[in-house]
Amino acid sequence: MIVFDKVTKTYDNGVTGIKDLTLKVQQGEFVYIVGQSGAGKSTLIKMLYHELVPTSGHLTINDFDFDTMRPQDVPMLRRSMGVVFQDFKLLPRMTVFENVAYAMQVIETPDADIKPRVLDVLKQVGLEQKIRRFPNELSGGEQQRVSIARAIVNKPTVVIADEPTGNLDPDTSEEIMDILDRVHAAGTTVIMATHNRDIVNSRTHRVIEIAGGAVVRDEAEGAYEVED
């Protein structure tokens, strides 16, 4: 499903984000990406949704070949994935319902299909009673649930979660992980960059450790095991 083949990304300032990185992710996996700050996790994550492209090497995602993709292909790639950010990135002037519905509107989903689907995913994340609230009326955990609902409303094949529990307390982090585990159990691939040692060690999934822009450890059922 996702193949990095000797991928390197060098920024304009000469800094190398990832170097000669090779890895594969199969459909239906749950993968943690771990490593120290500056290890290359953010570069890898941003490449997945085409915010960044390789300087060299070969990258394919969902049958999209980054070497041959045209600019008009990028929206199609992104339709196959949902992205969850640490800082939520909700639209402040839209309600909970409107934030999630917007993800369907931008891909021109028929209006008749939007309401039932949005209500369904908001029920899945436990926010069916707060559809008219605005982001500033929600707790951090509730905002992250909206972010997850928005990420899954278009039924993506892969969900990319970039530090989704980074700004949350431990109990709320566990609630967010419960939701991501349910998303995964439904067959969706989940790739999650995280510094949360407790979550990685208590909810066993594949662990890929990045250091110096390269994969230094890849374990099917790994633990965090990264020095601070």
TrEMBL record:
<dbReference type="GO" id="GO:0051301">
    <property type="term" value="P:cell division"/>
</dbReference>
<dbReference type="GO" id="GO:0016887">
    <property type="term" value="F:ATP hydrolysis activity"/>
</dbReference>
<dbReference type="InterPro" id="IPR025662">
    <property type="entry name" value="Sigma_54_int_dom_ATP-bd_1"/>
</dbReference>
<dbReference type="GO" id="GO:0005524">
    <property type="term" value="F:ATP binding"/>
</dbReference>
<keyword id="KW-0132">Cell division</keyword>
<dbReference type="GO" id="GO:0022857">
    <property type="term" value="F:transmembrane transporter activity"/>
</dbReference>
<dbReference type="InterPro" id="IPR003439">
    <property type="entry name" value="ABC_transporter-like_ATP-bd"/>
</dbReference>
<dbReference type="InterPro" id="IPR005286">
    <property type="entry name" value="Cell_div_FtsE"/>
</dbReference>
<dbReference type="GO" id="GO:0005886">
    <property type="term" value="C:plasma membrane"/>
</dbReference>
<dbReference type="InterPro" id="IPR027417">
    <property type="entry name" value="P-loop_NTPase"/>
</dbReference>
<feature type="domain" description="ABC transporter">
    <location>
        <begin position="2"/>
        <end position="228"/>
    </location>
</feature>
<keyword id="KW-0547">Nucleotide-binding</keyword>
<comment type="similarity">
    <text>Belongs to the ABC transporter superfamily.</text>
</comment>
<comment type="subunit">
    <text>Homodimer. Forms a membrane-associated complex with FtsX.</text>
</comment>
<dbReference type="InterPro" id="IPR003593">
    <property type="entry name" value="AAA+_ATPase"/>
</dbReference>
<dbReference type="Pfam" id="PF00005">
    <property type="entry name" value="ABC_tran"/>
</dbReference>
<keyword id="KW-0067">ATP-binding</keyword>
<dbReference type="InterPro" id="IPR015854">
    <property type="entry name" value="ABC_transpr_LolD-like"/>
</dbReference>
<keyword id="KW-0472">Membrane</keyword>
<keyword id="KW-0813">Transport</keyword>
<protein>
    <recommendedName>
        <fullName>Cell division ATP-binding protein FtsE</fullName>
    </recommendedName>
</protein>
<comment type="function">
    <text>Part of the ABC transporter FtsEX involved in cellular division. Has ATPase activity. Essential for cell division and viability.</text>
</comment>
<keyword id="KW-1003">Cell membrane</keyword>
<dbReference type="InterPro" id="IPR017871">
    <property type="entry name" value="ABC_transporter-like_CS"/>
</dbReference>
<keyword id="KW-0131">Cell cycle</keyword>
